[in-house]
Design goal:
Largest sheet: none
Shape: globular
Order of helices and strands: HHHHHHHHHHHHH
Radius of gyration: 20 Å
Strand content: under 5%
Number of domains: 1
Number of strands: 0
Helix content: over 70%
Distance between the termini: 38 Å
Structural class: mainly alpha
C-alpha cells in the first residue's frame, strides 16, 4: 500500500519474530490481531483522503518529500525505542543487503509518488485496481524469479487478472498505467525485500534514510525559491504535511502487531480491505467514475482473487492436517 511493505507477514515484526497464534492464549491474541489488522488496512484504505487534502496544499513531489523527511524523524525515534539501530547498521555494512535496499528504496519512492499522483489527479479507482492486482502479480513474480510452481487455481487467478486488465484497456481505450505501475513496483519491491534479512521497521528506516538527503535538499530549494508550501498556508497546513510521517509509520506498526498474532490466511483476507476502501472513497467521496467497463474488469479480478484466496485456504488446511499426522 501507500505506506505498507509487501514482505511476507513473518518478517513484519519490528522487535521480535512472529509468534504462533495457534498456541497459548490464542483467543485474545487473535482478537487483538484482527483489531491491529483492521487499523492497518483501514488506514491504508482511507489514505486517499489524507493525500487528496495534502495535494491541495502542495504538489505531489513536495508531498512525497515531506513524507520522507517526517517519516525519518518518526522512524528514528521508533528505532531508538525498539533498540533496532544495531540491526540497521548491520544491514548497511553488508554489501549485498545494502545494494538490495538501495534498489528497494528506488521502488518504494516510485510507488509512493505514483500513489500520491494518482490521488491528486482523480485516479483513486485506478490506484485501487493496482492493489487488487498486486497479490496476483506476486504469484507471477514468484514463478518467474523464485521458481515457485503455480497450482491450477493460481494459474487461473493470474489469467483472470490479465483478462481484467485487457477488458479495462480495450473498453476504455487507455492502458491502466497507474494500476499496472503500482502493482508492478509494489510486487518487485516485495521481491527484493523478501531477499533481505531486515524486518519492516529496520528496512523502512534504512530506505527513508537513503531518500532523506535528496528530499530535504528539494524542500530547502523550494523554501529558498519561494515555491514551497510549508510555512506559507498557516499552521494547519503545516501540521497536515507533517502528519505524513504518522501516515507512513503507524499503519506499518499496526500491521507488524497483527502479523505476530494472526495466521497468514487471515492476513490474506484482511489485505483486500485497503483497496476496497480506496475504491469506495474514490467513487462515493470524490465522485470518480465507475462504469460498466470498470465493473467488468473488477469482476474478473475479484473472481481471480476469490479463487486465489480459496486456493490459499485449501492449501493452508492441507499443510496443517499434514503437520498433525
Amino acid at each position: 500500500m501507500s505506506g505498507s511493505s509487501p514482505e511476507p507477514a513473518r518478517s513484519f515484526s519490528p522487535t521480535a519474530p512472529e509468534t504462533n497464534p495457534a498456541s497459548g492464549a490464542d483467543g485474545h491474541a487473535s482478537r487483538a490481531g484482527v483489531l491491529y489488522g483492521l487499523a492497518a488496512y483501514g488506514s491504508w484504505g482511507l489514505a486517499p483522503i489524507y493525500f487528496k487534502s495534502a495535494t491541495r496544499i502542495a504538489s505531489a513531489p513536495e508531498v512525497l518529500a515531506h513524507r520522507v523527511v517526517w517519516s525519518v524523524l518518526l522512524l528514528s525515534g521508533l528505532m531508538f525505542a525498539f533498540g533496532q539501530w544495531g540491526a540497521a547498521w548491520t544491514a548497511l555494512r553488508e554489501p549485498r543487503t545494502r545494494r538490495t535496499l538501495m534498489l528497494s528504496t528506488v521502488l518504494v519512492a516510485a510507488n509512493w509518488f505514483a500513489y500520491i499522483y494518482a490521488t491528486a489527479t482523480n485516479r483513486i479507482v485506478e490506484g485501487s485496481l493496482g492493489y487488487f492486482i498486486n497479490p496476483l502479480v506476486n504469484i507471477l513474480l514468484g514463478r518467474i524469479f523464485l521458481g515457485e510452481s503455480l497450482r491450477p487455481m493460481q494459474k487461473l487467478s493470474v489469467a483472470l487478472a490479465a483478462g481484467g486488465g485487457v477488458v479495462m484497456t480495450v473498453g476504455r481505450g487507455v492502458i491502466p498505467s497507474i494500476a499496472l505501475f503500482l502493482a508492478g513496483s509494489f510486487a518487485f519491491y516485495g521481491l527484493l525485500r523478501k531477499r533481505v534479512a531486515a524486518g519492516a521497521l529496520v528496512g523502512l528506516t534504512v530506505e527513508t534514510m537513503l531518500l532523506a538527503p535528496p528530499a530535504a535538499a528539494y524542500l530547502i530549494y523550494l523554501g529558498i525559491s519561494g515555491g514551497g508550501s510549508f510555512g506559507s498556508h498557516g499552521r494547519g497546513s503545516d501540521a497536515l504535511l507533517a502528519l505524513s510521517g504518522l501516515m507512513t509509520s503507524i499503519p506499518l506498526l499496526c500491521f507488524a502487531a497483527a502479523a505476530r498474532r494472526l495466521r497468514l490466511a487471515t492476513l490474506g483476507f484482511l489485505q483486500y480491505l485497503a483497496p476496497s476502501l480506496q475504491l469506495l472513497v474514490g467513487v462515493a467521496l470524490y465522485g470518480e467514475a465507475f462504469t460498466r467497463v470498470h465493473a467488468a474488469s473488477f469482476a474478473l479480478i475479484w473472481t481471480g482473487l476469490l479463487l486465489y484466496s480459496a486456493d490459499a485456504l485449501l492449501n493452508f488446511g492441507h499443510r496443517r492436517r499434514s503437520s498433525l499426522t
